[in-house]
Amino acid sequence: GSTETPRGSIEGTTRQAVKDGIVMAKQLRWVDSSHVMFYGVSRGAVVAAAMLNEVEGVSGAVLYSGAYDLDMLYRQTSSFWMRKLINPHGDTTPKLLNLLGEASRWRAPTLILHGGQDTLIPVNQALLLRDRLEALGTPHRLVIYPESGHFLPRQSVREEALNFLKETVPPACPAGSS
Asked: Are 108 and 61 in contact (CB under 8 A)?
């Protein structure tokens, strides 16, 4: 809350904050700097997806209830709050992020989690990303929670994420170590 940031676009400031955080995390002795993964929820999923091409050596991403084509979401949503969040200044022709175009350079395996009843960010956003990654041959898995909205069942998300990590990233400790 008290982080000092330079003036500029929120997008540029957010991207720089993530990059700075990764640099700091990689300096911790207990962090395996060769296996950076992104895990983002809602707006954090948008940020994580946006950063996949900006950080070298990303091993994977878990994207939970995110939006990947903000222009489409803006045009299709009836939510005043969502329109205000996406276009805070009320520009008549806002220039909005479409991460589906950037997906052509993603190489990191991606787990997409989304609620089938999400009224904040419709499930079609997850389906668009899945279709794009599928067309590109990028490793991914989509898990739709048909009865869930924007917030997903915590235990199931934890299990899906842990299974994804086990499948995509080698263990940090050698076999047989305690």
From this structure: yes
Cβ neighbours of residue 88 closer than 8 Å, sequence gap 6 or more: none
Find tokens 């994207």 and name the residue: 63
Phi, psi of 161 (to 5 degrees): -65, -45
Whether residue 123 contacts residue 144, with contact meaning beta carbons closer than 8 Å, is answered with yes
* Phi, psi angles (nearest 5°) of residue 27: -85, -10
**Residue 157, φ and ψ in degrees, nearest 5:** -60, -45
Full DSSP string of the chain? ------SS-HHHHHHHHHHHHHHHHHTSTTS-TT-EEEEEETHHHHHHHHHTTTSTTEEEEEEES--SBHHHHHHH---HHHHHHHSTT--SS----BHHHHGGG--S-EEEEEETT-SSS-THHHHHHHHHHHHHT--EEEEEETT--SSPPHHHHHHHHHHHHHHHS--SS-TT--
Q: What is the pTM of this model?
A: 0.87
Q: Say how far apart CA 58 and CA 47 lie, in whole Å.
A: 14
The model's pLDDT over 32-59, given as tens digits with 9 standing for 90+, comes to 777 888 999 999 999 999 998 888 878 8
Beta bridge partners of 39: 62
Q: Report the C-alpha gap between 65 and 42 in whole angstroms.
A: 5
